[in-house]
């Protein structure tokens, strides 16, 4: 089975049952703690096992499910946001494999949607991605965690090679990536949510799946291979703004959503619930330093949130526009997840398909990879402001200018190949996109919840203030994060 011939599977093998258990809240909060430097809740592994213990448990899983794989040399490989990765190799094998163990931050759904998404992409594009051999979307096993067994892809992360790459090679790799992305974003969908295998439809759909939309010739325009007769289902969304920290337990719709407004309204509702349920007491469940600072300034934070909430009906219409077409988008095409041949600098793989979902096209920022984007710059966190660390606005501005010059040619070639995702000629469309992107940015986990002063600044810069008084940004060591003259009202 594992000699010179590769494994030939029609689909990944699910080891676990399709029925999902619901862990109690007290079981999941132990996977979150206050980040030492920035004070927000971060994911961590409470188990103090050493690598030998992990390897022993992995081997027991493999002995039970895949005896041939249990003969592998198992070594620690890497650690990610939600995962531990171990390599599986053997002198007689022509391939290497990765065994990934995951923290249960969104039990069942995250693993199920990720594996289905990878299989969907593998079947419908030429994107080079790992092939999944088997997975468990349940923690009812020897590990006590969900896990995935997949092929190890060749290559090195872009971040390790970028400084040594000639300018021409930098442009070429993003031109190559663009060819695959163009195929990915050409797949269109009727709703916003996540992909699953059809056999778990009853677990992930609130209603009966709709039939694919077709034109007069019977050719599918959207929802390819989805719904009755298809291999896949479009169901509940898996995204960090829907499951991060306490959000996983809040009631409310997880989709799939028919309109952008429905999607934005639910994000807003979850953010509001999170802000109303702070954990400011050290030692208590879900405590983080950021919540303590929000609680100290909660009157102003709540007032600012109410003003943001009042903006949504003004800036996000009830009906979808051309910019709201649903696309499957890998929102972390970063220097960590793009793998290249270290000699030729050719693209070898795109990895880490966790929480990849179907979102409105405008939220992809023209399908721009994170590495070519300026969307990753973050203002100084709330906790650091409270500690007296001044805002890093000047550094951000200078670094943007530097990177724009460095990335410019690659970005230009990438967008030339990918092309437009929707018609942008209308001034009305352009204004809607600007408004919607602004709202989307404020609702990201790392924005309002961690940096409300930045939302106040954005509102002021865009004219969302009253009586000529704009929001001030805290620029001095003080416990007051949003100053007294922060926006009083939002003009109708």
UniProtKB/TrEMBL annotation:
Chain residue ranges for the region called Disordered: 1-26
Q: Which domain of life is it from?
A: Eukaryota
Q: Which Pfam families match?
A: APH
Where along the chain is composition biased (Polar residues)? Answer: 1-20
Domain Aminoglycoside phosphotransferase, first and last residues per copy = 74-386
What InterPro entries is this protein classified in?
AGP_Transferase, Aminoglycoside_PTrfase, Kinase-like_dom_sf
**This protein is called what?**
Phosphotransferase enzyme family-domain-containing protein
Q: Which organism is it from?
A: Chaetomium fimeti
